[in-house]
Amino acid sequence: IPTELLSTIFLFAKAFQEAEMDSTEREDVDDDFPISFELVISHVSSHFREVAINTHRLWTSIQMRPGRSLECILTYIRRSAACPLDIRIDLSGCVHNPGGMTTEMLDIIIPQAHRWRYLYITSEREVTENSMVMQLCNCEVPMLEHLSVCVSDVDRADTNVASINDHLLPSILAAGAPRLSFLRLRGLAMHFFRPPLTFVTTLHLDQTKLLPIQYATFRNILTGPVMLRHLSIYGDIIGPESWPGDMSAISLPALQSLRICGVGGRIYSRFLLSIAAPHLQSLVLKDVQEHDLDNFWEHADISKFLRLKSVTFCDFDVSDFTYERMFRTFPSITEF
Fold first, then answer.
1. Would residue 66 be called left, alpha or beta, if left means φ above 0 and alpha means ψ between -120 and 50 degrees?
2. Percent of the chain whose predicted confidence (pLDDT) is above 90
3. How far apart are CA 37 and CA 17, in angstroms?
4. 308, 314, 317: which is closest to 327 by C-alpha?
5. Cα angle 172-178-183, degrees, rounded to a multiple of 5
6. CA-CA distance, 4 to 12, in Å (whole number)?
7. Which residues make Cβ contacts (< 8 Å) with residue 23, sequence separation at least 6?
8. Rounded distance, CA 196 to CA 232, Å?
9. Average pLDDT, rounded, for the chain
10. 3-class state of residue 101 by DSSP
11. Residue 124 to residues 29, 94, 158, Cα–Cα distance (Å)
12. Helices marked H in 99-254 — which ranges?
């Protein structure tokens, strides 16, 4: 097999493995990592090894986690040459200790920030005086397209601290992220680690801790991207006392798809009544219950959803009466 063709086959195999990992949502999986394809194929034969080592794009996905050797990370950086990097930093269950292995890893990867294309960070707990996320995201990232930040806890994080921090936007990547199009903020990342939003087209907001944000901040986050097309919201996010009485509109002129998964049920009606999304085509409601949408059915403006074609209920419990109200409110849907 010609070297160029073998190299292409390796890249396809690597892409297949990564697609399978993504399909199982490995961001939420424990530390049972499979052996990467490039490590396996480079130990088959001397010829395969030579081709693999010189296929620079094969070494662009770097996983950093407790127990990963620094030499392995350095090897990936060296073999990837000048290619864009996909970085996954998983420190679940660990505390960031100054001078420890984590700091050494950061010292290796931060100088490569100009090459980052994908950056996924998950941290069990961030220490304000020595935040790993802040260290990672205090640099220029001209190539960054995909950012996912999951922070379970921040020391001394409470409602007062979160309210103060609500006004600090952006709080990471202040130098700008001109290519950032995909953003996921999970847990306390919504409060403490928000990047510039201007060019984001896909936004996921996942609340995992009962620490609501202010409605004005929520509105600023959603309207920050000028071309937001896809939005996913998990959790109630906003406290009940923070929703405005007049339900002033959150303008989302480019939004095409919306996914909502509530916990207490308030988010469904209140958010749908708040938004102005004239180009919305797809709506997914997960875990919705019988009376969660009563307020929406009663006050909905049918003219706001004329382009809505697809509605999906997942893990729901509603009656036939709810279906009737849905079809009256969304007369243009063709898929359910």
1. beta
2. 41
3. 7
4. 308
5. 55
6. 13
7. none
8. 18
9. 85
10. helix
11. 14, 6, 16
12. 101-109, 132-136, 159-165, 189-192, 215-223
Q: Residue 97: CB partners within 8 Å, gap ≥ 6?
A: 103
Distance separating alpha carbons of residues 273 and 76, to the nearest angstrom: 49
pLDDT value of residue 310: 94
Give the residue among 315, 307, 312, 313 at the shortest CA–CA distance from 331: 307
3-state secondary structure of 309: coil
Q: How far is CA 118 from CA 1, 51, 84, 230, 253, in A?
A: 32, 25, 9, 18, 27
**Apex 68 CA angle, 62 and 71, nearest 5:** 80
SS3 80: coil
Calpha distance 177→140 (Å, rounded): 7
Is residue 272 within 8 A of residue 243, CB to CB? The reply is no
Residues paired with 125 in a beta bridge = 95
Burial class of 331 by CB neighbour count within 10 A (0 to 12, 13 to 18, 19+) = exposed
Which uninterrupted H or E stretch holds 11? helix 3-23
Nearby residues of 173 by Cβ (< 8 Å), 6 or more positions away: 137, 138, 141, 144, 147, 180, 195, 196
pLDDT, residue 150, reads 92
N-term to C-term CA, the chain: 49
pLDDT, tens digit, 9 for 90 and up, residues 7-21: 999 899 888 888 776
Token pair recorded at residue 217? 């901040």
Residue identified by tokens 């303008």 is 251
Q: In whole angstroms, what is the distance from residue 220 CA to residue 167 CA?
A: 10
